């Protein structure tokens, strides 16, 4: 490999790594600010202007706390748990395309950790491994609550992974590729209305729901449900090991947001990208213009990511937690059949005249059914709960 | 040695080491974790053979789902205490003899066998990628592929049939 | 091809029929489904077809084996009327699993590609693991399922390894492709081929419970509910031998000198272990398990002495063995259920005491099936053994012939213990009742055994 490409790649990878950490750090701050805003409070405001140094103060506190390992714990696995959680969280951002490409001299280097033709599967593989960090840590703590939290996490992740995988098959059928970049470019080709969120509304809703469950975020944060399990899988953890778990959750949130943005919201594509990019290359020259256009695309992508991170927090502070059986019923009895239906309808739409918008049919039918059943139900009466 | 050969030997070494740990580990959890490591190494081998799709699916299905369920079950059983050895010496001897004979036979065969020379010109870089695999599965191997769904259905029906809680059974 | 599709679809239909409140329809529906599959099997009669890029090959031999398998399944299902009354039973699932397992059996019979063999073996085995454990509240049934599953999965793994090595040696999964490889490289076949043959044989011999891979058989047959034991010992064995015959007679006939010695030794071991151990059993069901091992030995003689007569002998022997085994298990089911002792169902020899006096029909059915299994003249079993022994004589392997005759005299001893118990011992006075349809099935099986015993030429020239 050419040395220049190697160096540029290393810089990109390091930048992705650094940005993941930075965003995760400030997500903790934003989370508290959003919570405060939702609850009409001020939130952290002591450390630095508007409390901006709060995450650094938190990290410092984490580092200087006593690093405690319970006597009956399995020591190496106890350490391995948070390490695994952090490792898998950081690995998944490697294949996400953050922008088009950077040009200089004769080089044309994509703004992406690594471009592989099975990018989507890579992310799925890494996400499916994420649960090991929780399971190993939960078991090694030798604590009933930790174990229960770990087991909940495992069953929840496995259940929702199925629907997660099924929900994007329709996208794969449209793009004909497993590469994330190819999926983004396929959306960019068709313009703003070609974004998968408009062609695959149902798939998007299912994917979003499952992404919440995979990140163990409210309303699916059963593994760390305080009212039932004390602290869940990290009950016994303290110091930076606990910090790693919490941090891994925020990194996962960032990666999920990036993945959702690239799969359903056109990635680094934004409306009128073609025209703007052409105008820039015409005025600034082929190289500089292209690079500036790439930068605008990357900025747009980060805008989408920030929106979804905000969305994650918004949901956390507005929606209550599910009960465990409700969680399982939703996953197995609603999301999986719906995603299979989505595959069938989308596939038949593509088969006949390449109709991309067939998925709307299900959404319309479902909405009509919901309205009908709602209007038929007697008003002011709660339907009896099934046992 | 070519760099790819170094990668191969290192990977093979780790694979064998973790596979041996699976069998020898006293604690079942360590055993399962070593098995997961083995699956990772096998995925590495798949990538070396240009079967990227297989590598990813191997990790998603085996390491990501099946082994999680293994771990899940073992955690529930909480097999921390080592079970007493229940096999007699005779059984052990017999196992050693049979396994040894099998291993010696295989070693002899693999040493003696003449593998045909590889023609690098014939190599198609797209072999093993998703598209080629899909075309293969849906054309030449369509029938076994479809009938494998009967196999999965049988396993599923069986699991539900055996696992279903009946009236009068204990609720955990 | 058509029966595979039909049975897969019918299995799913049966699962949906399980939603119905009434279970009455399930049994007749299953019987109709099996008959429909049987009818479509004969559509290819007299022709040789290759389906789906060398995946399946149907010829008359495959059709005959399929017929035997479907006939056995039909009789087993016809004897299953007790499910309807049983509160614990889940008949829809049982029948669906039986139909799916038939899909696997037909794949094993008519495969042309080793992948099909593997998938077929797995479908059949997985369904059998589940059915072995279908009596959920009985520890013996659970034990049977677990043992069968663990050992079966291991054997399948070995078989798959063998298939992989065969692919490595020949570069093809197709049975006839391996054959042409063996013929073109007659003096320099890759050693991997030999290793592959051995491992594939180990896997298959496990499935047909030949010694020394028979250790699971007694426990599994004993613990499994009786009806499914009958299914296991007929359908699985017939399909297994059909698969073995196809792979040995087509692919590996060119290296006959390599494997026949091993197979001959295993044959003798199987005959010895099966027959001698059966003598010491007190439970009829365990005796039948060892008897099924010994019959695997007789069938292996036909494969060891692979020749032109082998296929006819295998077909006839499998048919005779299946008929006799199913009627024996049919009688055992009725008797054991109605003569319970403190341990629940009584499956020992003493359950049959005085049976001939209280219910002459059941006594006669049992006697004929025992005579047929022992190979006494005027029954189908005699001609089956005769044909098998003829193949060995044709090939000139006389020592195996002498040994087999010796072992079948041992067999007479334990088969006659049942007859003696039924006709010469005093037993409980209360009569044994049999449902009408049940009776017809047993009578049909017995008549078929006798007809084949009197006129063995009926099946001649079909293959």
Automatic annotation (TrEMBL), chain A:
Pfam families: NADHdh (PF00146)
Biological process annotations from GO: aerobic respiration
Keyword terms: Cell membrane, Membrane, NAD, Quinone, Translocase, Transmembrane, Transmembrane helix, Ubiquinone
Reactions accelerated catalytically: a quinone + NADH + 5 H(+)(in) = a quinol + NAD(+) + 4 H(+)(out)
Topological relation to the membrane, as annotated: Multi-pass membrane protein
Enzyme superclass (EC): translocase
GO CC field: plasma membrane
Molecular function via GO: NADH dehydrogenase activity; oxidoreductase activity, acting on NAD(P)H, quinone or similar compound as acceptor; quinone binding
Database matches in InterPro entries: NADH_UbQ_OxRdtase_su1/FPO, NADH_UbQ_OxRdtase_su1_CS
E.C. code: 7.1.1.-
Primary localization class, coarse: membrane
Compartments where found: Cell membrane; Membrane
Keyword check for Cell membrane: yes
Membrane spanning stretches: 6-29, 76-99, 119-141, 162-184, 190-213, 250-272, 292-314, 334-352, 358-377
Oligomer and partners: NDH-1 is composed of 14 different subunits. Subunits NuoA, H, J, K, L, M, N constitute the membrane sector of the complex.
Main function: NDH-1 shuttles electrons from NADH, via FMN and iron-sulfur (Fe-S) centers, to quinones in the respiratory chain. The immediate electron acceptor for the enzyme in this species is believed to be ubiquinone. Couples the redox reaction to proton translocation (for every two electrons transferred, four hydrogen ions are translocated across the cytoplasmic membrane), and thus conserves the redox energy in a proton gradient. This subunit may bind ubiquinone.
Family statement drawn from the similarity comment of this UniProt entry: Belongs to the complex I subunit 1 family.
Stated name of the protein: NADH-quinone oxidoreductase subunit H
Species of origin: Arsenicibacter rosenii
Gene: nuoH
Automatic annotation (TrEMBL), chain B:
EC number(s) per entry: 7.1.1.-
Residues spanning the membrane: 6-25, 32-49, 55-78, 90-113, 141-162
Molecular function per GO: NADH dehydrogenase (ubiquinone) activity; quinone binding
Catalytic activity of the protein: a quinone + NADH + 5 H(+)(in) = a quinol + NAD(+) + 4 H(+)(out)
Classification via InterPro entries: NADH_UbQ/plastoQ_OxRdtase_su6, Nuo/plastoQ_OxRdtase_6_NuoJ
Enzyme class, broadest EC rank: translocase
Membrane topology recorded in Swiss-Prot or TrEMBL: Multi-pass membrane protein
Signal peptide start and end residues: none
One cellular component (GO) term of this entry: plasma membrane
UniProt subcellular location: Cell membrane
Keyword vocabulary terms for this entry: Cell membrane, Membrane, NAD, Quinone, Transmembrane, Transmembrane helix
Keyword Transmembrane: yes
Family annotation (PANTHER family): NADH-UBIQUINONE OXIDOREDUCTASE CHAIN 6 (PTHR33269)
General function of this protein: NDH-1 shuttles electrons from NADH, via FMN and iron-sulfur (Fe-S) centers, to quinones in the respiratory chain. Couples the redox reaction to proton translocation (for every two electrons transferred, four hydrogen ions are translocated across the cytoplasmic membrane), and thus conserves the redox energy in a proton gradient.
Family designation: Belongs to the complex I subunit 6 family.
Entry protein name: NADH-quinone oxidoreductase subunit J
Organism: Arsenicibacter rosenii
Automatic annotation (TrEMBL), chain C:
GO BP annotations listed: ATP synthesis coupled electron transport
Topology in membrane: Multi-pass membrane protein
Transmembrane segments: 24-42, 62-80, 92-109, 115-133, 145-167, 187-206, 227-252, 258-280, 287-308, 314-335, 361-384, 396-416, 437-459
Annotated compartments: Cell membrane; Endomembrane system; Membrane
Catalytic activity as recorded in UniProt: a quinone + NADH + 5 H(+)(in) = a quinol + NAD(+) + 4 H(+)(out)
Principal subcellular localisation of the protein: membrane
One MF annotation (Gene Ontology) recorded for this entry: NADH dehydrogenase (ubiquinone) activity
InterPro entries xref list: NADH-Q_OxRdtase_suN/2 (IPR010096), ND/Mrp_TM (IPR001750)
Keywords in alphabetical order: Cell membrane, Membrane, NAD, Quinone, Translocase, Transmembrane, Transmembrane helix, Transport
EC id: 7.1.1.-
NADH:quinone oxidoreductase/Mrp antiporter transmembrane domain sequence ranges: 113-408
EC supergroup of this enzyme: translocase
Record's GO cellular component terms: endomembrane system; plasma membrane
Coiled coil: none
Role, per record: NDH-1 shuttles electrons from NADH, via FMN and iron-sulfur (Fe-S) centers, to quinones in the respiratory chain. The immediate electron acceptor for the enzyme in this species is believed to be a menaquinone. Couples the redox reaction to proton translocation (for every two electrons transferred, four hydrogen ions are translocated across the cytoplasmic membrane), and thus conserves the redox energy in a proton gradient.
Entry's family note: Belongs to the complex I subunit 2 family.
Subunit structure: NDH-1 is composed of 14 different subunits. Subunits NuoA, H, J, K, L, M, N constitute the membrane sector of the complex.
Family matches, as NCBIfam families: NDH_I_N
Name of the protein this chain belongs to: NADH-quinone oxidoreductase subunit N
The organism of origin for this protein: Arsenicibacter rosenii
Gene assigned in the entry: nuoN
